[in-house]
Write a structure and sequence with these properties.
The chain is α+β, with helices and mostly antiparallel strands and about 290 residues long. About 25% of the residues lie in helices and about 30% in strands. The chain contains five helices and 16 strands. Strands 4-3-6-7 form a four-stranded antiparallel β-sheet, with no helix packed on it. The longest helix has about 40 residues.
Length: about 290
C-alpha cells in the first residue's frame, strides 16, 4: 500500500514538473538570425519553425532604446519585415529575436531567451537589384544609347510614390556596362554616372550588333557590395547583312559548285549529242550510190 502511494506521488510530481516546465517557457533560442535586404526591402530571418512557442522581435539603432514591430509580436513566423521602420538609412541597426510563450499563455519567466543579430546599415548593406534598360541605335549606326531605369525601392516619398535608387544615392549611383559584339566572346566595360549612357565610335564599330549587361555601382561601399545584380542581356540590331553575311561562305560555295556542275553536264550532253548527229549524217552519205558521169 505504501509503495502504491509513493508511486502515485511520484507520478503526480512528474506531471506537475512537466507542466510547470512548459508554463515556465523552456523555449529554444532562435538560430541563424540574419538580414536579407534587396532594394531596401529588409527582412530579419531566423530558424527554427516554432511549435509550442512564438517569437517576438525587438530592434533599435545600435545603442538606443529598443522597440517592437507590431507585426512581429508573438508570431509563429520565422521572418519579420522591418523595411518601414528602418527610416534612417545611414544608421546601424541591431535586432533581437525572443522566444516566448504562445499568445494568451502566461509564463513565470522574467526574461525570455533571445538571440541578437549582427549590425545592419541599409545604405551600405542592402543589395541592389537588376536594372531595366532600353537600347536606341542612331540612324547612321554610329552611336548606341542605353536608357537605364533607376531601380525602384521599397520606400515611399511624400507623395506616396515609390522612391528610386537615384533618390537615395544621388550622384553616388553609377552604372557599369559590360558589352561585346554579338558574334564575339570579347568584352569591354564602361562606367557612367548618368542613367543615359552613350557609346560611340570610340566604343563600338558602326552597324555591328552588340550585346549589353548593366549593373548599379556604388563606389563608396565596401568592395564586395559595390556592384548590384547584373541585368538581363539585351542586344542591339546590326546593319543589313550583305549577301555573304546572310548566306555564309559555305552555302555560297556549294551553290557555285552546283551551278558549275550543271554547266559542265550541259556541255558534255551537248558535245555527245553533236557527235552522235555527225556520225548519223556520215553513215547516211556512205549508203548513197555515186552518180554516173
Amino acid at each position: 500500500m505504501l509503495k502504491m502511494e509513493r508511486k502515485t506521488f511520484c507520478m503526480r510530481l512528474c506531471t506537475v514538473l512537466f507542466f510547470t516546465n512548459c508554463v515556465s517557457g523552456n523555449y529554444p533560442k532562435a538560430q541563424n538570425v540574419s538580414w536579407l535586404s534587396i532594394n531596401f526591402k529588409t527582412l530579419l530571418m531566423w530558424d527554427p519553425k516554432p511549435f509550442n512557442y512564438s517569437y517576438t522581435v525587438e530592434y533599435s539603432v545600435v545603442g538606443q532604446i529598443r522597440e517592437w514591430n507590431q507585426q512581429c509580436i508573438r508570431t509563429m513566423e520565422t521572418e519579420c519585415d522591418l523595411s518601414n521602420v528602418l527610416t534612417d538609412l545611414k544608421a546601424t541597426y541591431s535586432a533581437d529575436v525572443f522566444s516566448e510563450p504562445l499568445h494568451r499563455v502566461n509564463s513565470d519567466l522574467t526574461e525570455f531567451p533571445h538571440t541578437s543579430s549582427e549590425g545592419f546599415t541599409p545604405y551600405q548593406d542592402t543589395l541592389i537589384g537588376r536594372p531595366e534598360f532600353k537600347i536606341e541605335v542612331s540612324k547612321d549606326k554610329r552611336k548606341i544609347t542605353l536608357y537605364v531605369e533607376d531601380p525602384p525601392i521599397a520606400l515611399f516619398n511624400e507623395q506616396n510614390k515609390l522612391k528610386t535608387m537615384r533618390d537615395v544615392f544621388a550622384d553616388e549611383l553609377q552604372y557599369k556596362v559590360t558589352f561585346g559584339k554579338a558574334t564575339s566572346t570579347g568584352k569591354k566595360t564602361k562606367m557612367s554616372a548618368s542613367s543615359e549612357i552613350e557609346l560611340d565610335r570610340r566604343d563600338i564599330d558602326p552597324g555591328v550588333s552588340y550585346c549589353f549587361n548593366v549593373q548599379a555601382y556604388i563606389p563608396s561601399r565596401n568592395t564586395d557590395k559595390q556592384l548590384g545584380e547584373l541585368s538581363q542581356t539585351q542586344c542591339s540590331p546590326g546593319a543589313n547583312k550583305s549577301f555573304f553575311e546572310e548566306f555564309g561562305i559555305g552555302v555560297i560555295a556549294g551553290f557555285l559548285l552546283l551551278i558549275i556542275t550543271i554547266i559542265v553536264v550541259a556541255i558534255v550532253v551537248t558535245v555527245v549529242c553533236c557527235q552522235r548527229t555527225r556520225k548519223a549524217n556520215t553513215s547516211g552519205k556512205e549508203g548513197v550510190p555515186l552518180r554516173s558521169v
